[in-house]
Amino acid sequence: MKVLFIGGTGIISEAASKQAVKQGIDLYLLNRGQNTEFIPEGAKLVKADIRDKASVNKALKGHTFDAVVDWIAFVPEHVKTDVELFRDKTRHYIFISSASVYQKPLSHYIVTESTPLANPYWQYSRDKIACEEFLMNEYRNTGFPATIVRPSFTYGLKMIPAALNSWNNPWSIVDRMHKGKKIIVHGDGSSLWTMTHNTDFARGLIGLLYNNQSIGHAFHITSDEVLNWNQIYMAIGNAAGVKPEIIHIPSEFIARFSPDATGSLLGDKAVSMVFDNTKIKRFVPGFNATVSFSEGIKETIKWFESHPQKCTVDEEWGYVMDTIISRYEKAIE
What is the CATH number assigned to the segment(s) 2-154+196-221? Predict the structure, then answer.
């Protein structure tokens, strides 16, 4: 099987790239070649910018693929370009969407693929919904072979997953724990969430590549392990060898002082979400997530500790956390 990943070296996709090669897939990675550390041996790098249609056409001249997976399409213009580029070059196209597209607030905490799509809090999610709608219209009207995949909070070696952390400097939260600074947990920490290791997600995704009956369908691929946020933060601290000092602050209060939290918190992690994975298990027989969060986060912390150059701290993020804590403590005095 010959497969093209657009991207392929990100937090989620690097595990899928390794799994694809491991299963004997002839894998091509189309990206700008700026993150070669996570290109697996055996994969072929095609250096091109997917936002430059002419350069992609030139780089892929003469190639066709059994499947194409776009990991880095975020707005409808991106998937429109993909349809133009790959309509005659692939028999199966997979768009990586996001589980944040599901309705907020949820009408029921258990989420299936038929849960309505609506997120008034986060433009990122609304753009993903628009991408899905465009692709499904193409499937219905022109036969474009699209499948939708919705990951939830999926992490790997390069991410320390927390509801509040620096995206560019994920070690920041561990540094804060080590220094004995207070760690914000939204609400009372009892809302439910699902953390998914990228290797588990990868096995589900690669399984879909082999099943063309998945065309026209949408899937989420997550762990079945359900944790509350207090447990998640304590697991991060345990992996780092420290007991975090947690302070609980309402999500709405956090969002007032951290604009980014309006989308990523109010529009995603502030509400309980438990995913029903019946559908992906039906289409990919044998799929089951096996990496517990306590195991996976230990691997992540060890990786950072063995790569001290990656243990950078986002001082601005820390300042925002301190500001929120200070203002909240004054408000409740």
Answer: 3.40.50.720
